[in-house]
Design goal:
It comes from Rhodothermus marinus. With about 300 residues, the protein is mainly β. It has two domains: about 140 residues, Immunoglobulin-like, CATH 2.60.40; about 120 residues, Immunoglobulin-like (Sandwich), CATH 2.60.40. It contains four helices and 19 strands. Strands 2, 3, 5, 6, 7, 8, 9, 11, 13, 14, 15, 18 and 19 form a 13-stranded mixed sheet that branches. Strands 10-12-17-16 form a four-stranded antiparallel sheet, with no helix packed on it. The chain has a two-stranded parallel sheet with strand order 1-4. It is globular.
Length: about 300
C-alpha cells in the first residue's frame, strides 16, 4: 500500500532527531503519519520511530508493530461519539487500516477526529484534527491546452470554510503518463541536471496559498490559474487543490522555514509545529477537488 503521498509535504517522511544543537543522547520517539480526507473513507495510519541523525533508514526496523490503534469521532463537547478500530496490515510494516466493519466510514467535514495509538510498550500517542469543509469546482475553461500557450487552465471553485481563520490551500499536479518521452523542457532540465527520478517528478506541489493568491469573482467564487512551472510532463495531468486543516498548515509552514524558506538567522528559526501528544509527526486532514487536463506539445 502506498502512502497518500503527501506529495506536497516536502521531506515530511522519515523524521530524524536533529536540532540546532546536537543532543547529548539520542532517545527514539514515536512518529505518526496520517491524512484524513473530507467526504472520503478513513485513511491509513502509519506508525514508526525516529532515527538518529547518523542512522541508516530502514522501513522495517523503524516501523511500529503490534500497536492498538483507533480513531474517534468527537461531539461538540469533545467527547467520543463513535469509535473506529484499526488493524495492522501483515504485509506492510507499520501500516494500520480501518477494521473491515469501518472501511465504508466516510470522514465528515467540519468534525473533529482523535487518534489514539497505544504502543507495545504501553506508551500512548494521541492527536486531533478538525476537518476542513468541502468545496467544489463550478467551472473550467478547457480540458486540453498547449504547453506554454498564452491561455492557461482556469478553474473556478467555491470557497472552503475553516473555523477561526481564512482557508489555506496547496496546489498539486500529478502526471498520469510520467515517461521520459513526455518530459517538458522544465521537466527534462530537472531530470538531467539532478538526481530526481521520473517517479519523484511525477507529482509537484506549490507552497501554501491563501485566498489572496486567487482572483475573487463577483459571485464569491475563486478563480485559479495553473502556472506553467507546475507542469513537468506532457499528457493527462491531474490537478488537485487541497484545503488544509491547522495541523497540516502549521507543519508545512514551519517546516518550510526550517528548510530555508525565510530570511531568519539560525537562532531565530522556530521549531516545527507538530500537534501530537506522546510523539511526533502529523495526524491531519484536508478537503480536495480534482480536475484532469491534457497538456499537449
Amino acid at each position: 500500500m502506498r502512502r497518500l503521498g503527501l506529495w506536497w509535504l516536502w521531506g515530511l517522511l522519515g523524521w530524524t532527531a536533529c536540532d540546532l544543537v546536537a543532543p547529548a543522547q539520542f532517545t527514539p520517539e514515536y512518529v505518526v503519519e496520517s491524512y484524513q480526507i473530507a467526504n472520503e473513507p478513513l485513511q491509513p495510519v502509519w506508525l514508526s520511530r525516529t532515527l538518529a541523525i547518523d542512522g541508516i533508514y530502514r522501513v522495517d526496523s523503524l516501523a511500529v508493530r503490534g500497536a492498538q490503534v483507533r480513531v474517534l469521532l468527537l461531539d461538540a463537547q469533545g467527547q467520543p461519539e463513535e469509535a473506529y478500530d484499526f488493524e495492522e496490515l501483515t504485509d506492510v510494516a507499520g501500516c494500520y487500516v480501518p477494521a473491515l466493519a469501518y472501511r465504508n466510514v466516510y470522514v465528515q467535514p467540519l468534525r473533529t477526529y482523535r487518534l489514539e495509538a497505544r504502543m507495545p510498550d504501553g506508551a500512548l500517542l494521541t492527536a486531533e484534527t478538525l476537518v476542513p469543509d468541502t468545496f467544489r469546482i463550478v467551472g473550467a475553461n478547457l480540458d486540453s491546452v498547449r504547453y506554454q500557450s498564452e491561455v492557461r487552465l482556469e478553474l473556478r471553485v467555491t470557497r472552503s470554510f475553516y473555523p477561526g481563520r481564512q482557508a489555506v490551500y496547496i496546489l498539486t499536479t500529478e502526471a498520469l503518463e510520467p515517461t521520459e518521452a513526455n518530459l517538458t523542457p522544465i521537466g527534462r532540465a530537472l531530470y538531467e541536471d539532478s538526481t530526481f527520478t521520473l517517479e519523484e517528478l511525477r507529482v509537484s506541489g506549490s507552497p501554501i496559498l491563501n485566498e489572496a493568491n486567487y482572483t475573487e469573482q463577483p459571485d464569491g467564487t475563486l478563480l485559479l490559474r495553473l502556472p506553467w512551472l507546475a507542469i513537468v510532463f506532457y499528457g493527462p495531468t491531474r490537478v488537485t487543490l487541497s484545503a488544509l486543516d491547522n495541523n497540516l498548515y502549521d507543519l508545512i509552514r514551519t517546516q518550510s522555514v526550517q528548510q530555508g524558506g525565510s530570511t531568519l538567522s539560525p537562532g531565530e528559526i522556530p521549531p516545527v509545529l507538530e500537534h501530537v501528544r506522546g510523539g511526533r509527526g502529523v495526524f491531519g486532514s484536508y478537503a480536495r477537488v480534482q480536475y484532469t487536463v491534457v497538456i499537449t506539445r
